[in-house]
Amino acid sequence: MALEARIQNTAALFPDAVKGINLIYKAAHSAGVPGNTLELVHLRASQINGCSACVDSGARNARKAGETEERLFAVAAWRETPYFTDAERAALALAESATRLADRSDPVPDEVWDEAARHFGEKELAALVLWIATTNFFNRLNATTRQPAPQHWG
């Protein structure tokens, strides 16, 4: 049974918030991290948080960015597949750690951070962290207000 949304588009109720969100989006996407990597990170965090709207939009945006169905289907099991580069794996591990903060006493262990730092410079790491935090922000808004994935026909 599908649940009904409690509020329609929470962020849109606050136009000033939308302006700020757009600036965060622009900043995260301007630091040099490949767009498809950001989309994979967004998709993985959204899967963990069970945000159907963000999983849907994340997969669709990743496809628009050139992602293959094979890679998209494997994001949840990225460790067990050969489809991702070492840099993408490092970004996905960082996304998982930063999303599951309460799962361990050291939420983002040095080995996760250091591996990400091997593949991304300081500005790119900051953009990844900003994007992961933004994804988690949207996941929490959408899950709390029960925002459904849109129905697509055809």
From TrEMBL:
InterPro entries associated with the record: AhpD-like (IPR029032), AhpD_core (IPR004675), CMD-like (IPR003779)
This protein's record includes keyword Oxidoreductase: yes
Pfam families per record: CMD
A GO molecular-function descriptor: peroxiredoxin activity
Keyword field: Oxidoreductase, Peroxidase
All copies of domain Carboxymuconolactone decarboxylase-like, residue ranges: 15-96
Protein name: Alkylhydroperoxidase AhpD family core domain-containing protein
